[in-house]
From TrEMBL:
It comes from Sphaerochaeta halotolerans. GO terms for molecular function: GTP binding; GTPase activity. Pfam families: RsgA_GTPase. This is GTPase RsgA. Residues 1-74 form the EngC GTPase domain. PROSITE patterns: ENGC_GTPASE. It comes from the Bacteria. The keyword Calcium does not apply. InterPro entries: P-loop_NTPase, Ribosome_biogen_GTPase_RsgA, RsgA_GTPase_dom. Keywords: Ribosome biogenesis. PANTHER family: SMALL RIBOSOMAL SUBUNIT BIOGENESIS GTPASE RSGA. One of its GO terms (biological process) is ribosome biogenesis.
Amino acid sequence: MEDLLLSLRARKTYMLLGFSGAGKSTLVNRLYGKEISKTQEVRVGDGKGRHTTTSRSLHQLPSGAILLDTPGIRGVGMNSSASAIAESFSDSAVLASHCRVHDGSHTGEIGCAVKRHCNQGS
Ligand SMILES: Nc1nc2c(ncn2[C@@H]2O[C@H](COP(=O)(O)OP(=O)(O)O)[C@@H](O)[C@H]2O)c(=O)[nH]1
Ligand SMILES: [Mg+2]
Ligand SMILES: [Zn+2]
């Protein structure tokens, strides 16, 4: 815990990511030195977390480092709206507007600007 605390720099924000019940909020509390984020026993039966943390929350440690506690993830999917995806990946959306095929899959069409950019590795 001491090594972890020392590695967290003031004015930097660190995000805790992990499955529900992994111990993210417990870690926030330990680092802070008191109970500032609610934790919850994992469910008896399947041992999964209960999603006690339902929203993201920012906690500033006495050292000035900032922790972002998040609700656990049970899975990751692309279930947001098309506009939300376009917003999140706006760089790709701009590139896609330069593709020769306008409603392509960007997986290998001739003249695909997205693919070209990815292949450049930048
Ligand atoms: N055995 C063990 N239990 C832990 C550890 N860290 C957290 N827990 C327990 O795991 C449960 C879920 O912790 P919580 O911090 O709420 O998980 P979160 O959903 O990732 O925020 C609680 O009952 C904690 O007391 C750990 O390092 N070891
Ligand atoms: Mg939590
Ligand atoms: Zn394309």
